[in-house]
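Q: I'm writing up a methods section and want to include an example of the input and output format. Could you take the sequence below and give the corresponding predicted structure tokens, formatted cleanly so I can copy it straight into the document?
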Amino acid sequence: MKVEFDFPLKAYNTFGMDVSCARFVQIDRAEEIPMMGDVFDAPHYILGGGSNTLFTGHYEGTVVHPVFRGIEKADEAGDSVLLRVAAGEPWENLTEHCRLNTLYGLENLTGIPGLVGSAPVQNIGAYGAEAKDCIVKVDGYYTDTLQPFSLSNEECRFGYRDSIFKHELKGRCFITHVWFRLSTLPRFNLTYKALAQAMEGHEPTLDNVSETVLAIRNSKLPDIRKIGCAGSFFKNPVVDAAQYTALLARFPDLVSYPAGEGQVKLAAGQLIEKAGWKGRREGDAGVYPLQALVVVNYGNAKPDEICQVYRQVIADVQDLFQITLTPEVNIL
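A: Here is the clean output for your methods example:
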């Protein structure tokens, strides 16, 4: 365990916000967690790869950062393999491990930044797939009692960019390991239109599907090593059928997806673009010109400048569509 005070966080968040925290605790081993009662009894924030967090200023509490890693084959039965993956393992390491070991199921999620421990919290997803499709269970500790837990896929109550860890268990859990069931037989998900079109005429393999997913991502999303961001900043909103019908009369080209009985999911990026924000820049803060879902820091934007942009996006979309966009990112 490593403990630092007045610790700079610029290198620990992909938005590149030049902020700090009162105390920073790096967890090197999962076994250290039950000894951290003093940390969890006070204000704290568990920070993974920092790819889904916007710090709005100095954080007065303790930032807890896991760095323990490991990808372990726990079981192999029939045409599947069960992997137990440590929370501090970078997600890109897991998808690369699957590619090199011919394990199918996570290839559509190639290129997503962050750590494995964050994946079930957000139920990360891309190109027609979600982490929940392969997650079997999630292990960790309750931070209020320091007792261990193991929650099944069903108990995690996964939804669209959602889970129990964002509701009843928000701020009460430290995830240590995530268990994934992956296929040893080819089982590709090519339901996402852009991915299906890009794969036309090609026999899908782990290599070319992974490479195609990465190419699509790179064509739309900024390189976080050059432009600060947290990926998609907003969730795609879901509206009822009546509101969708009324909107369609005004905007016939509205993109939509089924979202259950009587519900329709809209493309937040399209709404933001129609509200005039795609590619718009206010100083070093703005909305990415190739994907309107992405709020960006072009270099030296301050937290309040990023906040001003995303709040104005929400206000302008509300004015135009009577729809309130919800941020995907954690805002502190």
